[in-house]
Amino acid sequence: METKPTIKTSRQNGKQRMLYFKNLSKQKQKEVMEKNGNNHKLRVCVATCNRADYSKLAPIMFGIKAEPQFFELDVVVLGSHLIDDYGNTYRMIEQDDFDIHTRLHTIVRGEDEAAMVESVGLALVKLPDVLNRLKPDIMIVHGDRFDALALATSAALMNIRILHIEGGEVSGTIDDSIRHAITKLAHYHVCCTRSAEQHLIAMCEDHDRILLAGCPSYDKLLSARNKDYMSIIRMWLGEDVKTRDYIVALQHPVTTDIKHSIKMFELTLDALISFKKRTLVLFPNVDAGSKEMVRVMRKKGIEHHPNFRAVKHVPFDQFIQLVAHAGCMIGNSSCGVREVGAFGTPVINLGTRQTGRETGENVLHVRDADTQDKILHALHLQFGKQYPCSKIYGDGNAVPRILKFLKSIDLKEPLQKKFCFPPVKDSISQDIDHILETQSALAVDLGGTNLRVAIVSMKGEIVKKYTQLNPKTYEDRLELILKMCVEAASEAVNVNCRILGVGISTGGRVNPREGIVLHSTKLIQEWSSVDLRTPISDALHLPVWVDNDGNCAALAERKFGHGKGIENFVTLITGTGIGGGIVHQHELIHGSSFCAAELGHIVVSLDGPECLCGSQGCIEAYASGIALQREAKKLHDEDLLLVEGMSMKKEEVVSAAHLIQAAKLGNTKADSILRTAGTALGLGVVNILHTMNPSLVILSGVLASHYVNAVKDVINQQALSSVKTVDVVVSNLADPALLGAASLVLDYTTRRIY
What we know:
With 754 residues, this protein is α/β, with parallel strands linked by helices.
C-alpha cells in the first residue's frame, strides 16, 4: 500500500486507503453467499471505543467497505472517542469517510476504578437498543478494554455472533482477564501470533474458528514509509528537530496498582527532563488513574517545558511516521512492544503492564522502574539505536485473510459455541472434601525394567510410590498399569489427595494429542501402536496425558527444576539410553511427526560403534549405559577391567558402574572409554547449541555427574564463541520421569500452556 504525504487531510488519506483495499485480490466465494441464503450480504457491526482500537479496526473497515457486494458495514462509536479531554477522536473516523451510525456516550468521568465499572454498566444499558435497531449478523470487537467487554456481553446475550480481534495474547494487568473473558464470549477469533493461537486452543476454543491472520495495523505499518515524514516531525516537535533525535513517550495507568504506576510516571518524566531531548508526550488513556497522571504532567510543567510537546491525540498515519523515525519510544503502551517493532525503533518498556507480550529485540524491559537512574540508564542504552525490523505480529496481509474468514461464516450454523475440552469420561461433583484435598496427579513411568506409579502433589512431592517389574507382553503390562493406577487412586483418598488426571511417561515415539505410543524402543517389547489414553480414562474416569520420557524429563525441569522460568533450554537424559526434551519459548517441541528431541541419535562419528537404532556413531552408541556396559564387558573378557581395590562375584553381571569404578581407581583404559563417551556427548551438545541456541543445558540421569565436566570442556573447545556462555548443569530432581508425567497433568489442569 502506498502512503501519500500524511500532511494532507485525513479524508484524502482515507480515500487512498479505500483504493488500496478495492485493489485487494477478491476471491468471489459465491457458494458461501448462496449457503447463507439468496446472496445475503453479511451485515457487520464494527464498534470502536478509543484511538488505539481504531488503528487496528480501521484497516478491516476499509476492507469491508471496499467490497459492498459481500458486506454491509455499520459503525458504532463509544467510549473515549467522544470525550474532548481525549481528543474527540471520533472525528478521525469521519475524516476517513466512514458513516457513524451511532454515537454512544458511555464514559462516566472520574478516572478511578468505580468510574470504569459504572462506564461498563452505562454501556450495557445503552447498547441493547442500538443492536436491536442494527440487527447485525456479526459484531467485530477488538482487544481487552472494559468498553469492549460491555460490547461482547451485550452481543452474546442478544444472540449476535462475535468476532474477537487479538485474543489469546498475554500482558500484565486486568486487561488479561478482560481479554480472556471476551474470548469466552466470542464465536470467532482472529489472533496475531502463533503463541496467541496456542493460548486460545489451550483455553478450549474451537480450532476451526480461530484465524491466525496477524495484526491488521501491520497492513498499514509495513507500507508506511513516507518521503515527507520531516513535515510531520516538524509539525509535532518543532522546526529544529532531526530524525532519530527525539523521543515519543506514551504511558498509561496500571489499574491493578495505580499508586505505583503514577509514581513510575513521575520518575519517567524526571528522567526525560534530565535526558534533555525533545520529547512528544501523549496523554494517557481513560483508565482509572489517568487523571492523576495528567496532574503529574501539569505539576512538572510538561505542557510548557521547551523540550516537551504534550498532546491528547496524534492521527495514526502521522503517529506511524513519528515512531518510525524516533530515537526511542518509552512507556508501557502495547504499541511500543507490538507496532514499533515493525520499524526497528528502540523501545523502553516500563513496569508490568506488558509482561508476557512477545517482543522483538528492539525492546528493553525495565520491569521494576522504581528509580529515576534506572530509567535514565535505559535511555542512554537505547536512544539512537537502530534494530532489525520485526514481523512478530504480522506480515502485512491480515485484512485479506480476515475478509476471507468473514465470507466463510455460515449463518445457518448453530449459534451456540462449542468448547474443545480435553477428554474425560465422567465428571466428579465438587464438594467441600475436594476443596480441602491436595490437588495431585497420578504419574506413571514405563521403563525398560520397572513399571512405577506415584501420587505427586502440586508442589512436586511424591506422596506415595508403587513399583513392579515391567511385564514382557502388552496384555500383562496394560493389566498391571490399570491395577496399580486403581490402587493408587484409592489410596489417594486416604492420604487426602485429589487426583486431577493421569500422566504417563514412556519410552519410544508418542503422539501426545491422541495418547498413542507409535513406536517403542527395543527395551520395551510389544509396545507399538498402543492407545493408552482410552482404556485408562475409561477405567479411572480421569483425563489421561501421554508423552515420551525425554519430553517428560524436560517438563519436570520446567515445572520443578533448573528450567523453571527459563525460556529456552534442553534436557539430556543419560541413563540406559540417551534421550531428552527441548523447550523453546517456554513450549515443549514435539516436531511434525512427534520425533523431535531424539538427542541420543545425533551422529557424532560416521564410522563409530553400531547403535540400537541401526545407525553408527550415535551419541547413544558411545555414552549410554548400554554402551558403557558393552565396553566394560570387552575389558573384562580381556582381563583388563579389574584393578587393585575392585572385586566381582563370579555370577555378578558386568555393568557400566564397574567401568566407572575402575576409572576412578586408575584404570587408564576405562578412563579413556569414559573420556571418549564424554567427548561424544559433548559434541552432540555442541550440535544442539548451534541448532537451538538454548541458554541452559540440563544433564539428567545416573551418568550426568560423570559427564558434566567433559561436556563443558568440549563446548569450550568446539562451540562457536556466541554459544559458549551456555550454562550446563546437572539436574537436582530425584525422579524426573515421574515428576514430568505429573506435570503433564498439573500444567494442563491448572491452565498452564502445554
